[in-house]
Specification:
CATH superfamily of the largest domain: Phosphatidylinositol (PI) phosphodiesterase
Number of helices: 17
CATH class of the largest domain: Alpha Beta
Structural class: alpha/beta
Number of domains: 3
Radius of gyration: 24 Å
CATH topology of the largest domain: TIM Barrel
Number of strands: 16
CATH architecture of the largest domain: Alpha-Beta Barrel
Helix content: 25-40%
Shape: globular
Strand content: 15-25%
Length: 464
């Protein structure tokens, strides 16, 4: 049956490929090959969506991922996720997340996905045909995403025998929704991953298209039953804004792992979801983003005391409404580096895949992964801002942090051990940056050359 389903997209793709030139027709059916052949943005995105769906159905038939990727769609080799999890890059990103665990949400960072549920990994539906993602929720989490976005609708669903139910659908009201899965079926994917990762804390954005008192009651019940004691609930009754001074360590200390954000809603929904109106968050697409020190422009800088969220949109609908215009490249690796060093809190990636170069763009600290526990070396920040291990007897300038959050670097070099005393004498504290933004501020203060920073590996655990 599924093999017959592939025939119609292939016939449609052949017609589209003819419109994009021989280069596209001879290459794998994908958006990239279409663009190489000179196709228009709308046609190439449409061709890419069909290619992604063919590749997804190919993988669903248990054909090797590499074989499917050669024929159509983006390169999705799921075995590479395990390779990533064991890599120095994964250890660096986990280390950076730990550095930010003590920071309030207005300063902490979360890598995440946009419309996380709208994936080709799901069976074909009206909305999933115009997908934002290739991987399921579990695989997105395995690649280091700690912010997920799910659009919740209150609709009659064939999966609920025609009754109203909370449905995850990328549509507007009922428009664009068909047989998508229910919220109650998708949240256990997150719960199972959290069970295997008990120290992880995630920010779950439930975009609210419920707009019905009964829908809010049912949706709240589903969320509570899925996460149980892992859910970090609002501290006050009624509509409660997300506290911007909340830290991941505080969530973890309370025995929780999931912070839900969205709209206020009504009734029981207010007991599970924190509100994040415009007074709490600033969000935008990445179009024409300005690099440091402009950092997105005047509006973004005025919002620095709030959560800054940037997301991209790779759907055909967006491309079709921009026919004739030059499409924005979205969250490219270089743009990710720019936003990270500017202090962006939330990045919403589309089309995250194994080996995605944007993951490497998020690494601002260690070059080859953090040193193991018990390593006797000390840490320098190189002239390019990246971190490396050095002998603690090496002489370097100490990096010092003032009480107002500004950095300064001493002119006189010293071995590492006296660096703390030297900073205190100068009116600061010997510290390490905790975010890419802090690392950039330190680079501004340091100028050229290396500096000591305070980080040292933890002692090796004793064996008894």
């Amino acid at each position: 049956m599924r093999r017959r389903l592939l025939a119609l997209p292939l016939a449609t793709l052949s017609a589209l490929a003819a419109l994009t030139g021989n280069a596209a027709a001879q290459a794998p059916i994908s958006q990239a090959s279409c663009e190489m052949g000179g196709g228009t943005p709308a046609i190439c995105v449409g061709l890419g969506k069909l290619g992604d769906r063919i590749a997804a159905e190919c993988r669903r038939l248990a054909i090797a991922d590499a074989t499917c990727a050669q024929a159509a769609g983006r390169r999705v080799i799921r075995s590479e996720i395990s390779t990533f999890e064991r890599s120095p890059l994964a250890r660096t990103l986990a280390f950076q997340s730990q550095l930010g665990d003590v920071l309030g949400l207005r300063d902490a960072t979360f890598a995440g996905t946009h419309n996380s549920f709208n994936e080709t990994a799901e069976a074909p539906t009206v909305s999933h045909t115009d997908s934002n993602q290739q991987l399921d929720l579990t695989d997105q989490l395995r690649l280091g995403m700690r912010s997920l976005e799910l659009d919740v609708h209150w609709l009659p669903s064939p999966r609920a025998a025609g009754a109203f139910a909370p449905v995850l659908c990328h549509g507007t009201g009922p428009v664009g929704c068909s047989t998508e899965r229910l919220l109650v079926d998708r949240l256990p994917e997150i719960t199972r991953w959290l069970e295997d990762n008990p120290r992880a804390v995630i920010l779950l954005y439930l975009e609210d298209q419920i707009d019905d008192p009964a829908g809010y009651e049912t949706s709240a019940k589903v969320v509570r039953e899925a996460f149980g004691e892992r859910l970090y609930t609002p501290a006050s009754p009624g509509c409660t804004n997300l506290p911007l001074d909340l830290t991941r360590n505080q969530v973890r200390a309370a025995g929780r792992q999931v912070v839900v954000v969205g709209d206020c809603g009504t009734g029981a929904w207010q007991g599970v979801s924190h509100a994040w109106p415009g007074s709490v968050r600033f969000e935008s697409g990445p179009e024409a983003y300005q690099d440091y020190p402009a950092c997105g422009g005047e509006k973004a800088n005025e919002a620095r005391a709030r959560i800054l969220r940037y997301f991209e949109d790779s759907t055909f609908l967006s491309a079709a409404t921009g026919i004739g215009s030059t499409p924005d490249p979205g969250l490219t690796p270089e743009r990710v580096r720019q936003m990270d060093r500017c202090g962006t809190n939330l990045l919403g990636f589309d089309q995250l895949v194994p080996g995605d170069p944007r993951l490497a763009a998020l690494a601002w600290s260690w070059v080859d992964g953090p040193p193991a526990a018990g390593d006797p070396t000390c840490t320098v920040r190189r002239a390019d801002g990246r971190w490396e291990s050095r002998s603690c007897r090496t002489r370097n300038r100490p990096s010092c942090l003032r009480a107002d959050g500004s950095w300064f670097v001493l002119d006189k070099t010293t071995a590492r051990n006296p660096a703390g005393r030297a900073c205190r004498r100068a009116g600061g504290l010997f510290r390490s940056p905790r975010t890419a933004f802090q690392n950039q501020l330190l680079s501004d203060a340091a100028g050229a050359g290396e500096t000591w920073i305070a980080y040292r590996p933890a002692p090796r655990a004793s064996r008894r």
